[in-house]
Design a protein that fits this description.
50% of the residues are buried. By secondary structure, the chain is α/β, with parallel strands linked by helices. It has two domains: 123 residues, Enolase-like, domain 1; 223 residues, Enolase-like C-terminal domain (TIM Barrel), CATH 3.20.20.120. It contains 13 helices and 13 strands. A six-stranded parallel β-sheet has the order 5-6-7-8-9-10, covered by helices on one side. The chain binds (2S,4R)-4-hydroxy-1,1-dimethylpyrrolidinium-2-carboxylate (0XW) and magnesium ion.
Length: 367
């Protein structure tokens, strides 16, 4: 099997409702969808969708430039040979793992389709028909966050991520107390500052919330700021934005900086890289999520397939953006929340096939 063409699509994903994080709000995300076409008539889809240009160093236009740089050198390769494909991407371009991820996801999709297996089966087998997820409550007033936490628990969610940061830390402290009072036993919490706290405020917050069980996700901007307060914090620390690749994950683990990860599929380089991270975390029995910063059904399915293969005792769930997106690429097999869980797609490969009308015409084609 050989890659004969690569098409790149732009999909505008307007945000339904309000999505505010410590660094600001987002209202429209530009997703980049990649279609790999082979000489055997099998096609695969991948996606990458940074949640705006300031959440991380990645951004939509950067992904497209990186794809343009790499795509010509991939034509002719067998997409089922992930090692070769990833090496070819490394030889064509340094970094830009989030763009390589879209190609890698599409290659796994092709592999699954050509062998008639789901990606989760190729990755070692799913733990069940459904997987854990978590709901992310954007930065909101203490009252609003508490009301939404109650509502999400009623819907069946058993893990909530409360966004904090980017405002007076007193309001974050009050929010966590109000949410804690609003929920019934059985709910697990993460407080995610998205790099928005100083180490001083992380200390204040953690110490003033010492009686509330939550993991503190990505409290500060740098590893050094986290390290400075790590052993004075009263809560386990998870790393998200700074877990940029397999190496940074190894560094964080080997220095004892973190107790788990909010793990992002495209940031580390796609399904192949996330599989490595999954296995490293497994060796150290570290909990982690398998999600991404945003994206439609393609990203969601990819996250769910990897998430389905993580030891359930340490799996913190796959977050998907579906509640904030109007409609699906694949209306027949959408990836969505159902009673606080997500059904693992059943079709071969990703198990979602985008409606080409929703992708429009390619913005770039190679091959
Ligand atoms: C909740 N998320 C997975 C989606 C947002 O875009 C960011 C994020 C996170 O955990 O930082
Ligand atoms: Mg996070």
């Amino acid at each position: 099997m050989k890659l004969t063409a690569i098409n790149v699509y732009n999909v505008d994903l307007p945000v339904v409702g309000k999505y505010r994080m410590s660094m600001g709000s987002v209202s429209l995300l530009q997703s980049t969808v990649v279609e790999l076409i082979t000489d055997e008539g099998v096609t695969g889809f991948g996606e990458t969708c940074p949640v705006g240009p300031i959440y991380q160093p990645q951004h939509a236009l950067g992904a497209r430039a990186a794809l343009e740089e790499m795509a010509p050198s991939l034509i002719g390769l067998d997409p089922r040979n992930f090692g070769q494909l990833n090496r070819a991407m490394e030889s064509a371009l340094n970094g830009s793992r989030y763009a390589k991820a879209a190609i890698d996801i599409a290659a796994w999709d092709i592999c699954g389709k050509s062998y008639g297996r789901r990606i989760c089966d190729l990755l070692g087998g799913a733990t069940g028909d459904t997987i854990a997820t978590y709901y992310s409550i954007p930065v909101a007033s203490p009252e609003e966050a508490a009301r939404e936490a109650r509502e999400r628990q009623r819907e069946g969610h058993d893990r909530l991520q409360i966004k904090i940061g980017g405002r007076d830390v007193e309001e974050d402290i009050e929010t966590l107390h109000r949410v804690n009072e609003a929920i019934k036993p059985g709910m697990r919490l993460a407080a995610d500052a998205n790099r928005g706290l100083t180490s001083r405020d992380a200390l204040f917050l953690s110490q003033r919330c010492r009686d509330i069980s939550f993991v503190l996700e990505q409290p500060c901007n740098t590893m050094e700021e986290i390290a400075a307060v790590r052993y004075q914090l009263c809560h386990p620390v998870y790393m998200d934005e700074l877990a940029e690749d397999v190496n940074s994950v190894l560094r964080a683990i080997s220095t004892g900086l973190v107790d788990g990860f909010g793990m992002k599929l495209t940031r580390v380089g796609g399904i192949s890289a996330l599989r490595t991270v999954r296995d490293i975390c497994d060796a150290r029995r570290l909990p982690h999520t398998c999600d991404d910063s945003w994206g439609g059904d393609i990203i969601a399915a990819a996250c769910v397939h990897v998430g389905a293969t993580v030891d359930t005792s340490r799996f913190e769930g796959s977050w998907i953006a579906a509640p904030y997106i109007d409609g699906h690429y694949d209306e027949e097999n959408p990836v969505r929340l159902e009673g606080g869980r997500i059904k693992v797609p059943t079709g071969p490969g990703l198990g979602v096939v985008p409606d080409m009308a929703k992708l429009g015409s390619p913005i770039a084609s190679f091959g």
